Amino acid sequence: MSEFDYDLFVIGAGSGGVRAARTAAATGARVAVAEDRYLGGTCVNVGCVPKKLYSQAAHFHDAFEDAGGFGWRLPAAPEFDWATLRDNKIGEIKRLNGIYGRLLDAAGVRLINGRARVLDAHRVEVAGETISAARILVAVGGWPWVPEFPGSELTLDSNQIFDLDAFPRRFLVLGGGYIAVEFASIFNGLGSETHLVYRGELFLRGFDHEVREFARDEMAKKGVNLHFEANIEAIERLDGGLLVTLTNGERLEVDAVLAATGRRPHLEGLGLDGLELTDTGHLRVNDRFETSVPSILALGDVTGGPELTPVALAEAMHLVQHHFGEAPPKTPLDYRNIATAVFCHPNIGTVGLSEEQAREQYGDIRVYTTDFRPLKHTLSGSSERCLMKLIVDDESDVVVGAHMVGEEAGEVIQGIAIAVRAGLAKADFDATVGIHPTGAEEFVTLRTPTRR
Fold this sequence. Notes:
- The structure is a single chain.
- By secondary structure, the protein is an alpha/beta fold.
- The chain has eleven helices and 21 strands.
- Strands 1, 2, 3, 4, 5, 6 and 16 form a seven-stranded mixed beta sheet that branches. It has a five-stranded antiparallel beta sheet with strand order 17-18-21-20-19, sandwiched between helices.
- The longest helix has 25 residues.
- The N and C termini lie far apart (59 Å).
- One of its GO terms (molecular function) is glutathione-disulfide reductase (NADPH) activity.
C-alpha cells in the first residue's frame, strides 16, 4: 500500500471514525481523518452526552418534590437557570472535543479540518488538498430531517435544541422516536408546559407494546401533554410565540417547536453518488463493511444499522480486524441482543426481543411481569410506578427479552444484558440471590408467569 499517501483515510471524526482510525493506526497503518464540524460526532456534541446531562438536570424537579416526604424542607421554591445548564454543558463538550483530538494525536493519526469529497476509489479532496488512500472509510453519521409544511422553517432540529438563547416556557415536540420522547420529558422536567405530537397511535414504534403503554401513562402523569394520531398542519409566528395548528383541529400556542422526526445519512457533497444505496437511502455494505466499491468502506449511522454509539464502536473494531488485522473475524458482527435505553422520565431499558417479536419467533413463550411502586415513593408520595418484564422461550427456558420502565432502567438493564447475551435460562435467574431492598431484585424473584 506504499503507493498511496495513507493506508486508511477516514471521513468523519465521530465515535466510529475515531475508533477505527486509532485502532488501525495501532496496527501500523498510516491514517488520516477529515472532520468538518466537531470531534466526537453526534453522540458527544448533539446526542448522547448532552442529552443525558439535560435529562439529569430535569430529574432534579422530581428530586425536589420527593424530598419533602423524607424530612427535607427547601427554604424556597427552586428556580431553574437555563443559561447555567447550557453553558456548563458547552464547557464539558469542549473538554471532550479536546480529549478526542489528543487521542488521535497520540495514535499518530493526522487530523484535517474540512469536509472531504471522494474523487474516485482511492482519492479524496479536502481543504484544497488531494490525498490518496488504499481504503477510504465513510463514517459521517446522520443529520436531522424535518418534513416540509407551512411554517416548518420555524422549527428547531435536534442539533439546535441544546443551545437555545432563552428557555421555552411552552414547548412542543413533533415525533415519536427516542429523541422526541426524551426531549418531551426533559423540557417538562425543566419546567416547560410540554406537548408531544405524534402521527401514530403510540410512540416508540418497535419497542415492546406493554413498555410503550406503560411509558405513555407515566409520562402523562408527570404532565407531558400527549397528542397521538395528529400531525402539524402549519406553524405561524405570533407576537411572543408560535401558533401551531394540528391536523386534528387543535391550536396550541408555544415558544418553541422541536422537529424530532429522524435523522438521515449525512452524505451530501461527499461524491458518493455512484455507490449502491439501500431502500432507505443508506450506504449498502457487506460483512466486511465494504460498499459497492470495495476500497470504500462505511460504518455507523450511514449504513442503516442500529443508530447507537456502542454499535459504531463495535463496527469499527470489526472493520479494522477485517482489513488490518492478522486474523480477520470468522463470523460477521452479531447485532442480536443489543441493549438500549430511552432517557425519558421514567427511563426505559431493554434488551432482546419484545413480547410481540418473541411470539412470532418462538410461538410458545412465558411472560413474567411486575408493576410496582418503588420503595422510595412510599415516603415521597409520588405515584410513579416501575415495570419489569422477562420473556422466556418455553421450550428451552432461555430468557430472550428483558424490559424495564423505571428509575435508572438503563443502569439495571446493562447488567441483565450480559445474562441475555449469554443465553442464560430462567432457572439461572431464579437461582440468583437478589440484593435487598432494590428494585433490580425483581428480575430474579419473578416466579409466576403473567401469561403464556
